[in-house]
Design brief:
The structure holds two protein chains of two kinds.
Chain A lengths: L2 H4 L9 H4 L3 E6 L3 H10 L8 E6 L7 H9 L4 E6 L10 H18 L7 E5 L5 H18 L6 H8 L12
Chain B lengths: L13 E6 L11 H9 L4 E7 L5 H14 L3 E6 L2 H14 L7 E5 L1 H5 L5 H19 L8 E4 L4 E4 L3 H12 L4 E4 L14 E2 L4 E2 H14 L3 E4 L2 E9 L2 E8 L14 H5 L7 E2 L8 E2 L2 E2 L11 E2 L5 H4 L6 H6 L12 E7 L1 E4 L3 E3 L16 E3 H8 L19 E8 L14 H16 L2 E6 L9 H10 L3 E4 L2 E6 L7 E7 L4 E7 L1 E6 L1 E3 L3 H7 L27 E3 L9 H21 L1 E4 L4 E3 L19 E4 L4 E4 L9 H5 L5 E3 L4 H12 L3
Parallel strand pairs in B: 1-2, 1-3, 3-4, 6-7, 6-18, 7-10, 18-29, 20-27, 21-22, 21-27, 22-23
Antiparallel strand pairs in B: 5-30, 8-9, 11-12, 12-17, 13-14, 15-16, 19-28, 24-25, 25-26, 31-34, 32-33
């Protein structure tokens, strides 16, 4: 993946970036993505730090996606799914919950603070909850500061063949 | 002029289109900057911005670029994919590309509408476009599956909404299963006396439709029945219906009602649900004279035969060789196959006891609106006389609006019908009793055809209107059984205490208590208040997020009869549209197994909620049945070897999206 390195020359200036944490948000299309749409339609205002990736179900979220997000420089990862019992696919959110619990322990093991990874049940009607959760997460991430983790360490962990040891900045 | 690069038809050629959406996007996001930025991204051949990309000229722009510049991937940064993804996939297809060589970027709902900082919103837009550009490169051509639609329809709920939907579809020649949990259809409307604003008699306009349902050759009417399980998918639902025992064989009963007279209970002793417990009925009864079906029902809670087994069973005796009574009936389940479903499960009236200071349940002369409907109704417990629980006839009546509506402590929403039914009750009470009527309101809400005129008419008739929320209701000091209604009259800034004989609480509309369960059963969503959520509040008001499931009436939110009937007709039309075309095209986002990678570990198999994955013994590999797969992707996330992939959401596509989002982080 050549892009990883080619972009390094364009890293945003230090300082400015440190203040604004970046959140990768995985939202299920039925509940939380709709809630984020509703927040938009209702013109609720919230911090511009989260970028949403839409998946059909929170059950689709492979723990590797979360790791990849951290490895690529995310300061926080948010997963949004349907409330327990409300999953459009019956129980995908339960599978997500199980994986998230385990993943949280793994993340803590490698030094990624608990507040950086969050799982929230947000129904399609809860636009305001999107606002509250993202704002709250941004606040907590600001308090934590940028993720101090050698991204190459994580990238190597994810794709050892594609990311051999080499000289790259953090 | 946007910058165009040399055309290289061999590789990926991406066109990026940034929409202004008037000022909806361009007002906050710097669309010019986004376009310039997009043009610098790898593989982007052309990047343009346009005022409304979804408009015909906008669509033509994309089509022209596809043919002239040889684009083979399209990215549109505009509104939510829920709105226009289909539009642009069609554009892509019309220009000769596979419709799935397209990716939508949401820079309106998720960006311009929710952020105020122009720079931050623009930066976010750039990240999102970069992610889409990276992702779309990896898109594969996909084909939509066609699924046949079973022409039979299930309608849940036999109120006016269900009845109207059922008749509309049955008249169009479709077979309808109408499932009602009570012993009769008719719902709340059957309980009303008159309907606002025209004062049509509710029974006169409803009962012909009820009997039409019963006699319609295309309608299978199941009363005392409930849907317990829904399997399958649009066009092919398998629905399990539980029939509760009536203890009377519907086909054998002729509705003569001799059994009711013959019952060992000489007097009716059981509080009558249909009359809001103001009247009495026998253990064997018919809910109301025009009930459909015209068949009696036995209430096992009060029937002596059920309680002791030692009844003389005079009902069976008189029924004689008709043999319609069967004490041994049991729950029975039945599975039917339908293609579409209309939910018309109605509403629940707010429990006035939840506002204790209004004294409902404490002071006998405090009534709910629905109770007064029954009192006024000629077929009601008092044969249409307004007689209080203490036997008096009221000389002064207070009607309290917004009980359980527009109240932070109960429900915040307006129930929409209470102002109008309060006016109707004011008129009817005045007509029947010549009592003085006081309406205590917060705001009068009479938006509807003929509604404001009706309000004026009632005001001219001499009904008093006091603008103020009632703070308290308590008995007056004397022994006259009167109640004092205490409220601040906000128009003259004075506190009023008005002694009245009768208080009518205009109780609001709530979701049915089991609405959350019903939501789960039908795989739909509830709104915050608990009513069923429509797909789009304006453009898809009767659709749900589950294809083939439609909404009608108050289960979607409070509404009056005209709106309910309009919505029921709309739900029928939406269902008919699906049925008449005969098939639906489904998203190709199903999972599939890459055999060479599958180790046969079977991790995915138990995770599939649809039993779509099986283990092929001969190959020792898992296999996904694409017909059963609904595309959640749970199996994909679980596969330790990455051998299960989901179309449109392949691992590498999502990784590309993640890396794209963060490429500059």
């Amino acid at each position: 993946m050549p892009d990883v390195n080619s972009n390094l020359s364009q890293v945003a200036p230090l300082g400015a970036e440190e203040l604004e944490p970046k959140i990768v948000a995985f939202f299920c299309t039925w509940c939380t993505y709709m809630a984020a749409d509703l927040a938009g339609t209702s013109r609720m205002k919230y911090a511009p730090n989260a970028r949403v990736i839409r998946v059909m179900c929170s059950g689709r979220i492979d723990p590797q996606f979360v790791l990849a997000a951290f490895a690529n420089g995310a300061d926080g990862v948010l997963i949004g799914g349907c409330h327990p019992g409300d999953c459009h696919y019956q129980e995908g959110n339960y599978n997500c919950l199980r994986r998230a619990r385990l993943l949280k322990r793994v993340l803590e093991e490698v030094g990624i603070e608990a507040d950086r990874f969050r799982l929230e049940w947000i129904s399609a009607a809860e636009g305001d909850r999107v606002r509250v959760v993202i704002n709250d997460m941004v606040e907590k991430l600001k308090a934590l500061g940028p993720l101090r983790m050698k991204r190459e360490t994580m990238l190597r962990g994810l794709h050892p063949q594609e990311h051999p040891v080499q000289e790259v900045c953090v | 002029m946007p910058e165009t690069k040399d055309i290289d038809r061999s590789g990926v050629q991406i066109g990026v289109y940034v929409c202004h959406c008037g000022t909806n996007i361009a007002g906050i996001v710097d669309v010019k900057a986004l376009t310039d930025y997009a043009a610098t991204l790898p593989d982007v051949t052309v990047a343009r911005n346009y005022k409304y990309v979804c408009s015909t000229p906008g669509q033509e722009l994309i089509k022209r670029d596809i043919s002239e510049l040889g684009l083979n991937r399209i990215v549109v940064a505009a509104c939510s994919p829920c709105l226009h993804e289909k539009t642009f996939r069609n554009v892509t297809a019309e220009a000769g590309l596979n419709p799935y060589f397209f990716q939508m970027v949401n820079i309106r709902e998720h960006d311009s509408w929710v952020h105020t900082d122009r720079q931050a919103a623009t930066e976010k837009g750039k990240d999102l476009i970069r992610a889409a550009v990276r992702r779309v490169r990896l898109h594969k051509p996909l084909e939509r599956k066609r699924v046949a639609i079973n022409p039979s329809v299930l309608i849940v709920g036999g109120g006016i909404a269900g009845i109207h939907s059922a008749l509309t579809m049955a008249n169009a020649g479709k077979h309808v299963y109408l499932v009602e949990r009570d012993a009769t259809i008719g719902g709340h409307m059957a309980m009303f006396d008159k309907t606002f604003p025209t004062l049509d008699c509710a029974a006169c306009i409803l009962t012909p439709k009820m009997t039409a349902v019963k006699s319609h050759p295309n309608i299978t009417l199941w009363t005392l029945s409930e849907v317990t399980q829904v399997d399958g998918y649009v066009g092919n639902y398998q629905v399990t219906v539980k029939h509760k025992p009536r203890y009377v064989i519907e086909e054998a009963c002729v509705g003569c009602m001799e059994c009711i007279d013959a019952c060992v209970y000489k007097q009716a002793k059981v509080p009558d649900e249909f009359n809001m417990y103001l009247g009495k009925r026998k253990p064997i009864y018919i809910p109301f004279p025009q009930a459909v079906p015209q068949v009696v029902v036995i209430d096992p809670e009060s029937c002596i035969e059920f309680k002791s087994g030692k009844c003389k069973k005079t009902c069976v005796e008189i029924c004689a060789d008709r043999n319609a009574i069967d004490f041994k009936q049991q729950d029975r389940t039945e599975t039917i196959e339908v293609g579409t479903i209309v939910l018309a499960t109605g509403f629940f009236t707010f429990d006035a006891k939840r506002v204790p200071y209004y004294g409902y349940g404490t002071y006998p002369n405090v009534y709910t609106g629905l109770e007064v409907e029954r009192l006024i109704n000629a077929a009601g417990p008092t044969s249409g006389e307004v007689i209080l629980r203490d036997g008096r006839r009221p000389k002064t009546v207070a009607i309290v609006h917004c009980v359980g509506s527009r109240d932070e402590n109960t429900n915040r929403y307006c129930s929409r019908v209470c102002c109008m039914y309060s006016l109707k009750l004011a008129h009817l009470i005045k007509e029947k009793t010549e009592a003085e009527v006081f309406n205590f309101y917060i705001d009068m809400r009479t938006p509807g055809k003929g509604f404001e005129e009706f309000y004026n008419r009632v005001a001219e008739e001499g009904t008093h209107f006091i603008r103020g929320r009632v703070a308290d209701i308590y008995p007056s000091r004397g022994d006259d059984g009167r109640l004092l209604v205490c409220a601040e009259d906000t128009l003259v800034s004075t506190v009023r205490k008005i002694p009245v004989d009768m208080v009518v609480l205009a109780t609001g509309l709530e979701p049915q208590p089991d609405a959350p369960e019903v939501c789960r059963r039908f795989h739909i969503t509830c709104s915050t208040e608990g009513f069923f959520l429509e797909r789009h509040p304006k453009l898809a008001p009767v659709n749900t997020f589950t294809d083939g499931v439609f909404l009608a009436g108050c289960c979607q939110g409070p509404k009056d009869i005209p709106d309910t009937v309009a919505q029921a007709g709309a739900a029928a039309a939406e269902a008919l549209a699906l049925i008449d075309i005969g098939y639906i095209e489904q998203e190709p986002n199903t999972a599939h197994v890459l055999e060479e990678l599958c180790s046969g570990c079977k991790t995915c198999i138990p995770l599939c909620p649809y039993q779509a994955i099986s283990f092929v013994e001969s190959k020792k590999k898992a296999e996904v049945n694409e017909v059963l797969c609904k595309g959640c992707g749970t199996c994909v996330a679980s596969c330790p070897s990455g051998s299960v992939q989901q179309n449109l959401f392949e691992d590498e596509e999502i990784f590309a999206e993640i890396e794209g989002l963060l490429a500059y982080a």
